[in-house]
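Exercise: predict the fold of this chain.
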Amino acid sequence: AEKAYNAARTVDYGDVIEVGDFVLEFYNAGHIPGSMVTVVNVDGLRIAFTGDINVMENKLVEKADLKSIGKVDVLIMEATYGTSTHPPRRVSEERLIAIIEEVVDAGGTVLVPAFSIARGQEIMMVLAEKDLGVPVAIDGMIRDVTEIMLENKKYLKRPELLAKAYREFKIVRGWKDRNQVWKKPGVIIASAGMLKGGPSLYYLKKLGDNPKNAIVLVSFQAPGSPGRRLIEEGKMPDSEELVKARVEWLDFSSHADQKGLLEIVKMLKPSKLIIVHSELDVAHQFASKVKSEIDDIDVTVAHNNAEYVVEV
C-alpha cells in the first residue's frame, strides 16, 4: 500500500501529462468532486474513459465538461442508467423540501440516509439554500468528507453554500449528541446511504416506529441491501418488524440517464463505443438505442476479462 501511495501522482482538471508513449488528458466528469474523464492519446488515437459521469445540473459539482474534451475516436463509457430517465434535479429538491415541511410541521423528524461522498453534501446544500428554519443534524462520515471537500473548494460548484450548511447545521460529534438530535422535530442527514450500518441505522431504529416520522432515501439501493428491503417490504433491517414511519425514495442520482448518455456520445462523436458498468440487459438495450439514433458507430457491450483490439 505504501509503494502504491508513493507512486501515485495527483492531477487536476485540464492537466495533460506524458507517460511513456501515452499522453493523458483529464477533464471534469461531473459525478462527484474530483471525478474525471481520462483521455488517452496513443498512435494517433484519442481513447476516452468516462468512469462514472453525469451531465445533470446540481448544486455540488459542475456537470461533465464535454466541450473541453472534444472529439474522440473510441469512447469507453458507463451505462448504469442506460434505460432510465431521471427527473430534473429541481423536481427532486422540491419534493424533498415538501416532505420535510409536512413532517416537521406535524411534529415529526425526517431521517435522510445518504452516501458519505457527494450525496450527503448535496442534500446539505439543498436544505441550506432553502433556510427552512428547522434543526438539521449531520452525522457519520458525511461530516468528515464535508471537511475534506471544504479544503478542496476548486472542485465544488458552490463552495460557499456547502460552507454555510456546515456552519449552520448541527454537527454530531459523539453519542451524547446522537442520543439527543432524534428526540425533537427536525432533519437528520446521516450515513450510510443504504442503511447497511453507521448512524443512519441507529436513527432508523429510533425513528421507524413512529408514524409521525419519515425516512427519505436519496441514494441508490442495491438489491439485498437494508434500504432496498425497506422500500420493497417496509421492514426493519434483520427483522420482520414493520416500519411505521413514512418511507420515501427520491432520485438524486449522480450518473447520467439514457438521455444524458446519448448526449455524451453525440458530443464526443466516437467511431467506436464500448459500454461498461451496466447490467447486461440494460447495456444491450442502450447499445440498440445508440445505433438507432447515431449513424456510422460501432457499439460493443464489454464483458469481464475480454480483450478488445482497436484498429489504428
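Check your answer against the key: The chain has a mean pLDDT of 97.
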